[in-house]
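Sanity check record (used in CI):
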Amino acid sequence: MDRRRFLLTVFGGGAALAVGSVSAIRLLGGKNRNVMTAATPAAMPAQDMLLECFSDDDGHNLGPCHVQKLVLTDAQWHQRLSDAAFNVMRRAGTEMAFSGSHEKPNSKGLYRCAGCSTALFDAATQFDSGTGWPSFWQPIAKQNVIENRDTSYGMVRTAVTCAGCDSHLGHVFDDGPAPTGLRYCMNSVAMSFVAFRVS
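Expected output for peptide-methionine (R)-S-oxide reductase:
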C-alpha cells in the first residue's frame, strides 16, 4: 500500500469513527431535558431552529433556545419509539379513543414530545373533551408545534406536528373552550408527561 492510500485509509476511517461517535452521543441525548440535541444521519444535515424551552422544575419559560431538528432514519425511530408510537408519530396514525394514558393529571406539569422532548403543552390548558384523546386549548408555545392542512380520508383538517422532530401529534379543531375556542386533540403515545418537581 502506498503512502497516500495509507494516509487516506487511516484519516478517512478516523473521521468516520469521529462522526459515528458524535451521532451515537447525540442519539443517547443529554441528561438535561431542556438542552435538546439531535441525532442526525451523516447524509442529512441538521436544521438549526429557535424554539421555546421550559423547565421541568416548575414549567418556567426559559426563553428561546437554539436546537437542532431531530432527524433519524426509520430504523432509528423504531429503536426509540414503541410500535404504537411509531405508527402515530412517523406514519400519521391515530391511537384508539380512550386507549391512552394521559387523562387530565392530578399534578401540575407539562407534556413533552415522546420523540425529542420538545415542550408541547402545559397541563393547565388540558380539558376533558369527551373524545377519548388528550385535549388542550393551546400549545405551550406556538413555535414548538407546526400546523399543516391535512386532506387525508376525504376530510379537511389541520394536522399538528412537533417542530423539534416533525413527528405527528394529532389535529386541532375549532370546537374547544374559551379562551381560544380551539381543541388540540393529541395522541397519548406521542407525548410524555413530566410532573413539576416544585410547586
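The longest helix spans residues 3-28. If this sentence no longer matches the regenerated C-alpha cells, the check is flagged for review.
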